[in-house]
Amino acid sequence: MNIVLFGAPGSGKGTQAKLMVEKYGFDHVSTGDLFRYEISHKTPLGLKAQEIINRGDLCPDDITLGMLNNHIQKHNESKGFIFDGVPRTIKQAEMLDDKTLFPTLEIDMVIYLFVETEEVEKRILKRAQLENRADDTPETVKARVANFFSQTMPLVDYYKAQGKLIQLNGMQDIEHVFADICATIDKYRQ
Asked: Residue 13 catalytic?
């Protein structure tokens, strides 16, 4: 089972993905974690990604999906994947659906954690303080939220048209959001 966990930065995707991994044994694929790994190891890809992320922009599709495809190939025995941070654009979604690029990948559902914009910004800035994340400055937060609404929100209609989109209230506490996610997954698996 392959799930896209979708929502604005700070909507709780990473937190919910960890809980889903514990309960269902899925492999959590966070593009943020993949990029942080590359950046911390100062690979050429990581250095290029660092410059782009510092501006608050999205990395090009070939970089993001190339890293994703490498991860999928290394974990081909997985019970399923939770994609966190990808796709971010219609083009990326179309690339994921392209069987010549991802011959064995099928997205089963897209869980959209809806959180209001003011709450998103507040959560990201709090996370930056708690985790000392350099990529969560006030300037990059505003740029990332703006990018989400302009480039990523069209995915709602894209996946709704495929009958794969499930919108959940991400404004609830962690336990209630997780209960809603579990109910959704369990219903699908029946």
From this structure: yes
Among the listed residues 183, 143, 168, the one whose alpha carbon sits nearest the alpha carbon of residue 55: 143
pLDDT exceeds 80 at position 132: no
> 11-54, pLDDT tens digit by residue?
999 899 999 999 999 999 988 788 777 788 887 778 888 888 78
Compute how many other C-beta atoms are within 10 angstroms of the C-beta atom of residue 113.
22
Provide the token pair at 67. 């890293």
Q: Which sign, positive or negative, has the C-alpha torsion 130, 135, 137, 142? A: negative
**Closest to 167 measured CA to CA, from 184, 151, 189:** 184
Query: Quick check: is 23 catalytic?
Result: no
pLDDT tens, position by position, 149-180: 888 899 999 999 999 999 999 999 999 999 99
Catalytic residue among 18, 48, 133, 160: 133
CA distance to 45, 129, 147, 169, 177, per residue, from 173 (Å): 37, 20, 25, 10, 6
144 is an active site residue: yes
Confidence (pLDDT) at 47: 86
Position 9 confidence tier, pLDDT thresholds 50, 70, 90: confident
- Selecting among 48, 127, 160, 164, the annotated active-site residue is 127
Is 88 in the active site?
A: yes
Residue 154 φ/ψ region, left for φ over 0, alpha for ψ in the -120 to 50 degree band, beta for the rest: alpha
